[in-house]
Amino acid sequence: MTMSPDGWPLAEPYKTKMIEWIRLLEPTEREAALRRAGYNPFKLLAQEVYIDLLTDSGTSAMSQEQWGALMRGDESYAGSVSFQELERSVGDVLGFPLVLPTHQGRAAEHVLFRALAHPGDIVPNNLHFDTTKAHVLTAGATPLDIVIKEGEDPEGDYPFKGNLDLERLETLLRDQGDRVPVVMATVTSNNNGGQPVSLENLRAVSEIAHRYGKPFFLDAARFAENAYLIQQREAGQASRSVGDIAREMMSYADGCTMSAKKDPMVNIGGFVALRDEDLYRRLRDFGILYEGYATYGGLAGRDLAALAQGIREAVFEPHLSYRVAQVAQLHATLREDGIPVMSPAGGHGVYIDAGRMFDHLGRDVFPGWALSVELYRERGIRCVEIGTVLAGRDPGTGEHDYPPLDLVRLAIPRRVYSQAHLQQVAEAARRILLRRHDVPGYRFTYEPPTLRHFAAEFAPLG
Ligand SMILES: *Cc1c(COP(=O)(O)O)cnc(C)c1O
Prior knowledge:
With 462 residues, the protein is an alpha/beta fold. 40% of the residues lie in helices and 12% in strands.
């Protein structure tokens, strides 16, 4: 049984006021749904899914305070009261005086890189999230991942696998500094399992970037989970509040991009927050062009109001300690059952190493994809492959561009599923492990030329 920090069994720090029914389809119905979807979980209909762990983005449950704020949204085109609430909230929780709302995180990246990145530039980051990488590339620049080597090892229990390699950063800035427009860090690091970056590392990255005259920005979608994991794992931080730690994290940065669909728990929204008035003006011009006027940025006033409230709730400690414990519990159960998982547990999900779990399947028949199909077949669970199918083909050779691992991500939406739901997930994985040698690989029956995972169709082998 998972225990709370006070030694009592873990329980949700909220009660239910409104419910949404979910239904587990019969096995024959699930099989038919899989066939219809071309064995692609993205093509399943929501009502065909029992427990949806496809993503934690935009899928969290809002609080009564957020729903209340939604009703009070001010829809004024310019200078809306809801925008002012957002400014206050960003100022109080993150410490940034300037905020430019956008319709979601990638739009914030678009605006930032339009202004900062140019052809031939290099943008360092611990691990670029997919959309960040795409925006850097679209600007004609090169995304450079400089996570520490522990961050590439799926097994070791190093507590801060999101940290940046300071030596590589220093070398890059010393040798090619004129090509670097901005230094980035993603908190938490989504691409290697929601792993945190330590305060010590953020402080050092900030010092190095500023010594070379470079702005330092955080990709802050999961800033609160990062702050909580610092409180739990970093020496000397245990007695501080998460709010305090979050503000210190931000104090090292010149600004951040935010996908508010993650920790701030809204269904849609994002922003760029920053300190420098001149840079703000440059971003604002692009914001107005692509997103809408500077005080709404592609969002309704009510969205801004719910977001202003969600930022405050993101650092609420009972929420974070329950959430992270829930993720850790699923991680621990899977590990005890002999299922290979990335360790340590991160903030927002559990990543199964399907390549190791299905060592009877070659990488060219997509073991990660096979597990994502099997979890639906076994118990109506939807999740996402982060492996060979997602990685696509090398444009030069046309071969699969094999990533280091074939993973499956079980992303946990915030405040949505109970421990009992996650036990269903663990049990499904356990049963699949027992019959793993009967699990087939897959081949494409339709392979789109780009972003193939979204629309591809497959057939099972054998
Ligand atoms: C989700 C995400 C983004 C992109 O945000 P969207 O709101 O999906 O556009 C950027 N960075 C990280 C780390 C993310 O998790």
